[in-house]
Amino acid sequence: MRFGFPAALWALPLAALPVILHLLSRRAARVVRFSDLTLLKSVDARARPKARLREALLLAARCLLLAALILAAAGPTRRGDAADGSQSGLDLVLMLDASYSMRARDGVQPRFDAARDAGRRLLKRLAPGDRVAVGVFDETLKAPLAWGDARAADAALAAARPGWRGTDSVAALRAAKEALEAAPRGRKRAVVILGDGAEHGLASGAAPAPAEGAAVLGLAFPVLANGWLASAGPSPDSSARAPRVEARLGAAGAAVSTPLDLWVGERRAGSTNAAAADGGEGRAAIALPPAEDPAAPSWSGKVTARADALAADDEAFFSISHRPSPRVLILYSDPLFFRAGKTGWFLRELFGGAKETLAGREADFLEAARWNEADLGKYGTVMLADAGRAAPGLSAGLESFAGRGGGIVVMPGSRGETADLAGYPWLPARFGRITDAASGIKRVKDGDAVAGWDELELNKVNIRRMFTLEPAPGAERWITDGSGAPLLIAGAVGRGRAVVWASSLDVAWSNLGLKPAFVPWVRACLALSVPQSAADAARKVKVGEAIIRSWSAGEAAPDKATVRAPDGRRTTLEVTGRRAVLPEASVPGLYTFEDGGRSVTYAANLDSSRGESALLPSSSPPWRSSSVDLLDKEFLDAVYGKDLSAWLLALAALMVLFEMLLSLPSRLASLAAPKAAAKAAAGTALVSVFFVFQASFPSSAQAQQGDRFVWTQLHLGGDWDPYPEAPSAVMTWLGEVTSVRVAPERRAITLNDPALFSSPFLYLAGASAPAELRDDELRRLRQFISGGGFLWIEDSGGGPPGAFDRWVRRELPRILPDSDLKPLPADHVLYRTFFLLRGPSGRVRVQGSSAGVDWGGRVAVLYTRDDALGAWARDALGKPLRACVPGGEPQRELAKRMTLNVIMYSLTGSYKADAVHQAAILDKLKAAP
Amino acid sequence: MRWLDPASQARLKGLALSPRRASGLSGAPGKHRTLARGHSRDFAQHRPYSYGDESRLIDWKAYARHDRFYVREFKAEDRIPVYVLLDVSGSMAYAGEGRQSKLDLGRRVAAAVAWLALAQGDEAGLVTFAAKAKLALPPRAGAAQLGAFDQALTDAAAGEETDLGKAIEAAAEELPRRALLVLVSDLMGDTAGALKAVRGLIARRHEVLVVRTLDSDERDFPYEGPCLMEGLEGGEPLFVDAREAAPAYRAAFARQAEAYAGSLRRAGLPYAVAETGGHWEAALGRLLSR
What we know:
The complex is a heterodimer of chains A (929) and B (290). Chain A has 929 residues and is α/β, with parallel strands linked by helices. Chain A is built from 18 helices and 43 strands.
């Protein structure tokens, strides 16, 4: 990692600031004097580990945050590929691959367009001080590299077009390296190869090492399988009579099977199917239609396969011409020519007669003496099958025939004499005497005519008798016997050619006719007798090569020739030295030379022999590969280095978040802590569930109550609670004096509360009249009382009967219609249930204050106006709140006892009225003060 | 009177210190009833005369009515000493801002209790306990005792570290016979030990009333920021971050308060909490009115 501003790193110790501050804060803590530390210490001991951990994490987060910020400010970059130059600018070399493989389409766009657009995008990222050199290359660099600015480079890229040649990335790299090394030092350097990175482009040699400090990038395209037509040409067995064109199919990446179409001229002339395995070759042959001009059979057109990703290589052009195969005239003079074993017999077998000829040409047999009858213009070759004494005029006639361009093949007859054969002085060889030949024949010269002779067992051919031949100057020796004496000599005669065979086909002379070498030998003789025209040899060129049209000696060469290119343009060429040269066939297709009447077509094809059509990418290119979309990003990373500050800032942000999370609990410490909030939430959930249950189980309140006595007060009316603290004092004293277990809290309920039925004791106080009871409330009260409950109503006003008294006297008959409110007798068991009392008492003593309603043999509702509860009331200091009149404190004591009695009556009933207690109670009563 | 002022006297007038159970000590007359029949002025009941009773106890009017001899029985009055057990450990010296220290509050409470006891005619004594217990003032009845009590309170100085339970037990050693004990302490320390000691007191058949003196700071923990806490009873100072420790401390304090209240209530002991900032007379009144 390098830093843009290393000076910022001096601030790194600041990252330790939080720790220092933390330690200082400890020192600066103020001293607090507290009374007792036991609780604090126990609390602290419990919370210490967690608090310590949180503290440590918080400190670490803060230190990391500061460190990340400082590092980010120092401008860290991961080292890029380009040398760390100064800030003075960038020298960029862009090499655009314009080979024909860049015409392949990935989807919609050709790769050339994608690469070029990537290059133009890259140019937008450059700074003003940067220099760019753009080179367009295929097999060579189209133009030398020149430095310019980004705008010129953009224009150069926009003007570039893909070509038809192959790729040589190594040469491009070399040129880039030279250009960079020639540039002044001190600047950043980068080379970008905008090609497809195919394997074939790097095959020309080892890539040169990049220039010093230069980053090299290239593009990588997805793998694309491709099939192509490598060539279209005459198939090996094609002849003028049965022309066939053979197409070779190549495939790379996947096996290819495609229909092939044959186009001759503008028309489709045939089709077939071809298949090629991945990395292999497939061949298919299609028959050509008959030639238009039988004298000069030629065909030109193209073979097309199904277009795939790279369409440019899916057609191959051909221009085929075969030598016409005119008939052969065979002249013989021996009447026994056709007898078995004689020359004629072999020849007739060969040339078929009724059957197909094996020599590729038709032959007519004629006696030599009648040679005048033949129209020599019809024949291309005349064969003297057994030359002997020449018929009159034959030699001259043959010589002129050959001079016009015909072919002569001469074989001496078995009866011929040397002197007879001297009549043909124009032959390329002179006959000598008859000798015995050495066995075996040898081929001494290579050529198309004798192609494939290696397979024949030439050593089995025995020539027993032969003429010695003396070749004329300029004649070619093609075949010799075992000792080297020439057997077959060919030479030019005028515009034509003549071939001389030293022996005869008679079985007495040689067994050639019986051997498998016979047919090829005949073909060779015929082929050698046909004049070669230079123009036949190669009518195909590769794109980029020059096309040369030459006129042979027999043809008239014009001054100017016009060439029609495949795109239709015509160019006029000068003819010099019988040659017209088109400097470059730039586009694949058919180039037609037109001069006068004749037109000769040449086929220019893509050169796929370099592997250009195999679009397989190289597995280890000598540059940093990137996909087309990410080129500019990779470029910036390679040249300027990857900027890491974004990562550091992200780390800093993460630390901020972490710190906020960690310090959250202490922030909420004063409010309900999240733990308490969670507890509250859980509690609410539980309580709500509980209430759902409680709605269906109304008796659960009783379950809570257990066996404790609860002072249940009725919340009815406005003055229902004159003495809020009095019941708890009652409960306390009740618990102390009796053995009743009390619940310390009083319960205040309304009539609709289900807890109404949980307690047998119900107290109602009031001074003003409450609202009239509704029917359902009445019903509930009635239920309560009939279920065994006791209701104690007290008028807490303490004075004359008022509104509350009237309300009570009105409502009670409604609650219990069949019973009346009657005053209690003085000896009612109520006054004896716990304490022995003389009569009712309370805060006040009112005449006739106690009344009750009997129900079910007991007093179910007690109505007093003495305000017994008022005697319990205390002020804040614990002193009695209200004075008891008229009795004072003793009356208060009695009021308290009365309250207890009433409660005990509600709990235990009237058992004290039983006879067993009578005597003791009476005694006590007498003795009591 | 340093520790008792007329305002407090006015507020506390009429309160009575009375034990629940009668002490059963016969002899010198006091205000409280006992079941034992002794000599007092209140008539309790008639009993048939049996051989050996003093003849002056015979109720002649009853004889006239019933033609049988009945002896009068009187309610016995008794004296019960009242001891104030005052905690003078170091933690009692704590005073909140602008408030009296807990020890001063304790002294006032002690003085009030002594005055009530002496007004009833009972004996009042003072036991102070810190690390050791000291009978600062032997119990005596009479008006002069109040002055001595006051002086003894002034002399009692805040001491050092206390183990509360042991200190209370040590104090119990100083008490010769059944007494009414008013324990005035802040009860800050080992909760279980203190409760055990109080139960020990009850086991010795003392009557115990507990007054807890507190400062509101101890309940609220109103500190902020990092603090170095030093205890008044000595020991290692503690460094806390007050804001983080506060909730846990308050919860622990509340738990301790509830533990005391619950335990003492279950044991049937009157218990009140007096705060230095609030009205301690009301707390004392509630305590004594039970």
